[in-house]
Amino acid sequence: MLSAQIKNAKEDIDEFCRKLEKSEKYFDASLCKHTLLKIHPLLEGIITDHDRKLVTEFWYRVAHYLGVQFGIDAALEADRLQEEPASEIVTSMTDAILGEGKKLEDALEDTALIKKVKQLFRECGIPVGMKSDIVKHAFSKPRGYAGDYGIIEIVYDNKISSRGIGYCADKRFLNDDYARAVRSRKTMMRKMLAAFLGNPPGPTVKILNVACGSCREIKELFEQKTFDTLEKIQFTLVDHDQQALDFSMKVLSHSPSNVEYRTLCHSVYDYLKEPETYRKIFDGQDLVYTIGLADYIPDQRLKDLIAFLFSVVRPGGKLVFAHKDSKNYSPLAPDWWCDWTFHLRDMQETVDLVKSSGIRGYNLSVERETETNIIFFIIIEKTT
Ligand SMILES: C[S@@+](CC[C@H](N)C(=O)[O-])C[C@H]1O[C@@H](n2cnc3c(N)ncnc32)[C@H](O)[C@@H]1O
């Protein structure tokens, strides 16, 4: 049915959009047409008939999808539709088009082509996507990189802030597997910290939090418990973004009096260039942890980082890092909508990275958050 409609002639495009305008309650036919015309230069550059057919079919679905999204936007603006029912349509259609996008990615012979398709998808969809404050932040990356402390704070707050179609996109974003997993990761890390401080190795403990962002898990930890029996809890907070560190110091200013903070504005890549210099700064940590970083780091560098962080753990101490499980998670919405990608690994692949990182003298265990089953924590205890 769809393939019969797929001819590149302009009349066919008009006919396709006209039919949808009649069948869809909320639809922007001119946007649909505009979207369809946009794909032509890309189609002309595709070498195989196989790939051209797949991209064409997918793009008609995209035009349908975006036609409805822009139609919903107009209906919300005109008060012909309310945000909650609109949200249901937006979510189910978004899930469906992302599923089609995944199928396309798996089926294309030319892997570079998918990047161009995603880019065009964003270009056509972003005028409506930008009406969501959250999508706008994730897409425009105001700190110059994906996954800054600000967007993670938004995910933790879990509050819709936009109106109209923006409300629908905020809601879809906050309910995405990614956001649910990030919230659950933070909660699990808070619990791990509480367990660690509840059974401390001595009266003074040293904890290094790498890529600390907003330190929400620490803030929540001390809001719930104070660990008065400990003489001193020394946190070293590292992030490459000074704004994240400044934000953290502000939110942690009400911590108990036995807690000390040291902030260091470093990129972890500096540790790989000059490990000896940085080792002296950190040596002898009881606990080193990093959540929300490993998925952004390519294999060899992650191995080197694991080796460096393990080297600053004292014997008997632990290195803990969190990772998303590619078996349970496909980052479709961040990727297609916001050009926000991760290094995808499953648990075994990540364990294998640790094993080939060159570290010696450890016990390795894995724990999972059970809220989404997406995040696992690798726990490496130094034995010697
Ligand atoms: C996804 S956030 C996670 C923040 C925090 N750990 C949390 O879970 O809420 C990633 C953090 O890593 C920091 N970051 C990214 N690349 C980094 C690098 N190369 N060195 C140090 N920090 C980095 C970012 O600034 C950001 O605060």
Q: In angstroms, what is the radius of gyration?
A: 24 Å
CATH class of the largest domain, anyone? Alpha Beta
Helicity, as a percent range: 55-70%
How many separate helices?
Answer: 18
Query: What low-confidence regions span 5 or more consecutive residues with pLDDT below 50?
Result: none
Give the full name of the CATH homologous superfamily of the largest domain. Vaccinia Virus protein VP39
Strand content: 5-15%
Q: Note the run of SSEs as H and E.
A: HHHHHHHHHHHEHEHEHHEHEHHEE
Give a verbal description of the structure.
The protein is of the alpha/beta class and 384 residues long. It folds into two domains: 2-129, no CATH class; 179-382, Rossmann fold (3-Layer(aba) Sandwich). The chain has 18 helices and seven strands. The protein has helices at residues 2-5, 10-23, 29-38, 40-44, 49-77, 83-107, 111-129, 133-140, 149-157, 165-175, 177-198, 216-224, 242-251, 268-273, 275-282, 299-311, 332-338, 347-355; strands spanning 204-210, 232-239, 259-265, 285-290, 313-324, 362-368, 375-382. The protein has a seven-stranded mixed sheet, with helices on both faces. Helix 2 runs antiparallel to helix 3 (29-38), helix 5 (49-77) runs antiparallel to helix 6 and helix 5 runs parallel beside helix 7 (111-129). It starts with a helix and ends with a strand. The model has no long low-confidence stretch (mean pLDDT 96). The structure holds S-adenosylmethionine. S-adenosylmethionine binds at residues 147-149, 152, 186, 211-214, 216, 239-241, 244, 267-269, 291-293. S-adenosylmethionine binds next to helix 9 and helix 14.
